[in-house]
Design brief:
The protein has 160 residues and is of the alpha+beta class. Helix content is 29%, strand content 24%.
Amino acid sequence: MNAVTGIRSAAATPAPHVPALRVVSGTAAPAMPAAAAPPPLRVVDEAGEICTISRNTVQAAIEVLAGTRPAQQLSRRLDPRCLAALQHRAALTRRVASGSSPTAGRLHRNPSVRSVRACRVSDDVYEASAVVVEESRVRAVALRLERGTSAWRVTVLEIG
């Protein structure tokens, strides 16, 4: 009986023929086969992106009003006038919450964004609306987003 192991069988079979390398003069790049073309760019769902930005911005703005998030975290997303108005409203909300009203302490408790809708106004402008549910009430929020040089920026923020 003649047993052949993996090592012996590999040594017994001849190696496949590999063509020799040859030197080619010139600097031309090798031709790319037609099948290796880069894939086409996919279309980005701009309205979906706007809804996501709006949802995150509204959630953060309501948390600023609740006092659980610093307003400076929104400085990259909000226009300076919107940020100043939000900081002013948050200060007023804190002042009211520290008063003697029994319901003032429950303002902006457990906020969550229920829904967001976006509408394209022009190539560089969208308007969005959101519904925010809190423990004691439901409120509407309206936003206007404008395309900046590097990102979308909220130029108007109205919290009902």
